[in-house]
Amino acid sequence: SGIGSQKDRVVTEEEWLQKWEMGNTGFHKEQGHPLLQKYLNVLLNGRSGLRIFFPLCGKAVEMKWLVDMGHSVVGVEVSEQALKEFFAEHNLPYHEEPVPEISGAKKLQSTSGNISLYCCSIYDLSSSIVGKFDGVWDRGALVAVNPCDRERYVSLMITLMEKNSSYLLVTVSYDPNKHKGPPFYVPESEIKSLFG
Ligand code: SAH
Question: Which residues bind S-adenosyl-L-methionine (predicted)?
Fold first, then answer.
């Protein structure tokens, strides 16, 4: 019962790839997320030319918003289809290269150089590969991670943050007995204990 009903649920990488193949991507927001607009100054805090990280990025249009404002974006996503759709839908030329540190991974990078999208699992990344970030946009990421992987995910995210970085997190509030997720219900108290 309660949030216990979700804690053992696992969505495999294969299932995510299938969602993309089937077009079962109701989470994608064509118009971008109003909460990023609303809290943009919290993320940027008057700074320019930031490096912003998009964990579990899908084809989030907010990546384009931020590069258009002069920032650079790094994303990670298991679905290559999602990443290719991102570049295609914004008419952005890109090239692909292997990631020497991660077997089987690819980096898709815009020709302009300011968007780098890693096609691999987030758990394959580290700060020695992607560096550290001034800001994080976490929408559909913590809430999409399997409940059993939350601690691992948050510990990794903390290692990817610069000292003065800001982290915008979007969660969803609902009765976890009524939906199995994802998105999973992550209560405020758990967020506090995860991020400390
Ligand atoms: N943040 C995006 C997508 C949210 S849905 C948005 O706001 O639209 C979650 C995404 O995470 C899916 O596209 C899924 O393919 C991807 N994903 C799931 N597990 C992952 C993992 N371990 N590493 C990287 N991407 C993952």
Answer: 16-27, 56, 77, 121-122, 139
13-195: in CATH 3.40.50.150? yes
- What residues does each domain of the chain span? 13-195
Alpha helix (H) ranges present in 23-61? 34-44
Q: Give residue 111's region: left, alpha or beta (phi > 0; psi -120 to 50).
A: alpha
Q: Kindly compute the dihedral angle of the four CA atoms of residues 106, 109, 115, 118, in this order, to the nearest 10 degrees.
A: 0
* CA 61 – ligand 1 centroid, Å: 14
128-176 pLDDT, tens digit each: 999 999 999 999 999 999 999 999 999 999 999 999 999 999 999 999 9
What is the 135 CA–ligand 1 centroid distance (Å)? 18
Predicted structure pTM score: 0.97
Taking a C-beta distance cutoff of 8 angstroms, is the pair 105, 119 a contact? yes
